[in-house]
Amino acid sequence: MMxxxxxxxxxxxxxxxxxxxxxxxxxxxxxxxxxxxxRTLVDTIKAAGKTPQDLPFxxxxxxxxFTRVGIPAGNFDTGADNIKTEEQxxxxxxxxxxxxxxxxxxxxxxxxxxNHDALALSGGVIGYVVGLYAQDQGGRNGVPARGDRTRHPLxxxx
Length: 158
Fold this sequence. Notes:
With 158 residues, the chain is mainly alpha-helical. It is built from 4 helices and 3 strands. A 3-stranded mixed sheet has the order 2-1-3, with helices on one face. The chain is globular.
């Protein structure tokens, strides 16, 4: 998902700037600090030459287990099963009306179908942001220091 063939550039909407999804079941838990991670990802992607768009922060990714217990999270990907729009083609190129990653969760999801330009950009962005947060234990990058975070208990069904 970091080098999709019909690349889209998206971050999960931790700052909740998207309108609420009327079809969503309940509110997604977004731990404090997550909007700071989103801002850092967006700024870094823009510095790399692309303008990302928001995806719902809906727990549909690997971050869900972390956010459920109050650990701040962010998400950046170049596509999945979302269909690329004409507006997105103007931003990033590619083909409208097709999935950003037509190989997502298929047997064609192999190294042969990697977009090397997207991989170079994504690798740099991810490496930079992970390194930034890994070095900052004091909460200066928008994520509260460990002892200051609000912890969320899991419900009985979880």
